[in-house]
Design brief:
The complex is a heterotrimer of chains A (124), B (227) and C (544).
Chain A: H1 23-44, E1 52-54, E2 57-58, H2 61-81, H3 89-114
Antiparallel strand pairs in A: 1-2
Chain B: H1 25-60, H2 62-70, H3 74-100, H4 103-133, H5 151-190, H6 200-224
Chain C: H1 14-18, H2 23-51, H3 62-81, H4 84-97, H5 106-128, H6 142-146, H7 151-178, H8 191-223, H9 236-268, H10 277-290, H11 306-334, H12 343-366, H13 368-374, H14 378-408, H15 414-441, H16 455-485, E1 516-518, E2 539-541
Antiparallel strand pairs in C: 1-2
The chains are: A mainly alpha (124), B mainly alpha (227), C mainly alpha (544).
Chain lengths: 124, 227, 544
Amino acid sequence: MSATTQAAPAHPPEREGHHIVPLWIYFLVFAVLLLLTYVTVWVSHHDLGSPEILPDVRVHLNVIVAMLIAITKATLVVLFFMHVKYSPRLVQIVVGSSVIWLIILIGVTVSDYFSRGWLGNPGT
Amino acid sequence: MSAVASHAPSQDAPPRGLAHHFRDLDQQQSAATLGMWLFIAQEVMFFGGLFLAYTIYRSEYNDVFTIASHHLNVQMGAINTAVLICSSLTMAIAVHAAALGHRQQIVLFLILTILLGGVFLGVKVVEYKEKFDHHLVPGPHFSGHELKLEGDRERHAQIYYSLYFAMTGLHALHMIIGVPIILWIAWRAWRGEFSAAYNAPVELVGLYWHFVDIIWIFLFPLLYLIS
Amino acid sequence: MSERNNYLTNGYGVRSWLLTVDHKRIAILYLVSITLMFFIGAAFAACLRLELATPQGDVFQPETYNKIFTMHGVFMVFFFLIPSIPAVLGNFLIPIMIGAKDLAFPKLNLLSWYLYIFGAAFTLYAMVSGGLDTGWTFYTPYSTAYSNTAVISTGLGIFIAGFSSILTGLNFIVTIHKMRAPGLTWFRLPLFVWAHYATSIIQVLGTPVIAVTVLMVAVERMLHLGFFDPALGGDPILFQHMFWFYSHPAVYIMILPAMGVISELVTAMTRKRVFGYEFIAASSLTIAVVGFLVWGHHMFVSGQSTYAGFVFSALSYLVAIPSAIKVFNWVATLYKGSVSWDAPMLYTIGFIGLFTIGGLTGLFCAALGLDLHIHDTYFIVAHFHYIMVGGSIMAYLGGMHFWWPKITGRMYPEWWARVSAAVIFIGFNLTFFPQFILGYLGMPRRYHAYPDEFQVLNVLSSAGASILGIGYLIPMFYFAWSMRYGPKAAPNPWKAKGLEWGIASPPPTENFESQPIVTEEAYAYAEPASKPAGGGGHGTPVPA
């Protein structure tokens, strides 16, 4: 079966979760992904500094920017290439949950290391 | 509240590809998609353990990690990133074609995806060989000589390279598993098994492949771009 | 009941079983395998209690003793407790309880069983090739750098079995979302289904972390890497974080399905609607989520930050609340119910009492200051055995008795079942209650020898273990006997509500002759003086 492509392309009737993403969106996302890749490499060649936001707490801006770019790229892939923007709520919940659980794993573990010395004996 | 039975006895044969325990293709496809997303969720947690280890050790041994990272080839990493992004595009187009039932397009773009995946793996082989030649593969032959590190700092560098090989290796393994699966789906597409009504296998393999791309989107800056 | 074709008679021969995709047959495959694993783990426990009957280490070498408690833990945790209720009762019942023909992915279900077997095979190989002595917790750097035992093969066995668990969880979640019968809204689901849904979330999100951790341990061991070895720059506390991130939620994998069973039993055996249905359902989900936030309570003395210990302790108190809500609701269901004293009810009441003791002692363990003293003592051992054995295993046995007529089409002998329930209850308490006292007095766990003054309590515990062992063996005999000689069971011998009781015992392969439509709430037991026609199921099967 082949659909004829004319001025108004004939799509099969849309069912829940079966939205057909137009091709131009894919190309646009593709271009943005390549652009962001270039940007992240470019930024890595420049030291953005490490301001001290709290006593004894430095943030290395390069890491933050690199991660923000990566998160943006991943989000674009998830929403458009993987159709999550057009997916049922349940799928979106599954995606959100895996992100949250990853954050729990990394965040809570890191907070142990981060809070060493806050209470109790030095070094613990 | 009562309802009529949901079986329609007027159908002659079940639609092609419908499994016996599902009511209709819609239920089957939505179940399959949900199943694949749950699989991806567990993959996120699987890689997540390594990302956690990376986070802890990078903050602990930041300067050694920086030195070690500089010995990775950023150009190759960037090229690989671009290659995988291209392969995600070709895969997305293949899934699009499947939803429209364009048989030849499905096959073409799945094959393109495989070829791009092959390019990625080829570059990785080159990179790994380079590491091997410079004694940067963790294990009995590891040496910090190339990095001008010794003692404790050499051991920390070995942790960096252990994470490098573990993370990129696990990622590459997922690609190596993915490529034959895509090939199989491409073959099924070529045989005309898919249509606008039934194309879940293509969509599912697409989800898997995009996930593999996303992992690399994070690996690249974390491993290659430590500045 | 006429000899109609049912799932047991639908195909004979090894191939029809080993290549089945019928969820009921797969449940039986699991039943056989996990029973075997249980007895292997129990044999190790028997060896432990034998050694501990005397203060000296006079039965086994100390290194052997280390292997015994390790293998006891590995087999019981990974190959019995985690799969048991979901893989046997869950697999069998969930499609039927929701009015479906099978799980969403029948072939994946069979794959899950093969992965379990494969993992078990690796672990059995590890056992016969010298065993493992690190404790089931694999702490580094001993497991990665110093132990000379079968770390990698056991780890691989656990890794493979872990994927069995993940795929089962995935299958259940999709099934429950997508394959419910018409009219079966979420709040009409049996609580058994809610419990397994919550368990499946844990299986999918938690198990991969231990999988990758075990992989890292294996790789570190093979290549002398430094992920977790301080001598090489690694961090053993990181291992513990990663290990317990899964292994704490794992205990909820072990107890939530049991709670689901108890919810079913308490309502059926009192012929009364369960009290607080929504609370019990919500508490299952709450336990699943909050259970992921408390793992550091296993690490209070590990070197983790005191601040983190304080937060983990507070959260651990929080996670006790939904469990307590369940207990309150079950007791409220029992109140003024028409209590029958059949074996399933005996196991239910046993569960409620023993799980409460286990749960309350869990609060002792969760108290940061107290745990500094009781960590790694027999108090902890007693606490978790009250939950795992007094809780999970009692619920598993209760469920097996309750659904035995449905699964096999035969009734078990009630008198023998009551006797063994009583023997198990007595044996269990005699085994494990003295251990609370021993732990309080300071006896460390994982020790093969102890000071003389602990002997009396240890002898009581070992005596209890013998009685408990007998209690577990008796059902093996009468269940087997019943399959040949037990009276044939009616479709609904308990006159219980639930879709499974509206079909034949044993069920036909396709479960339902026609798609059931659900029109009632769950557990819609009649108030006294009125009785719905039929007496079985809460659906109205519509003829094709």
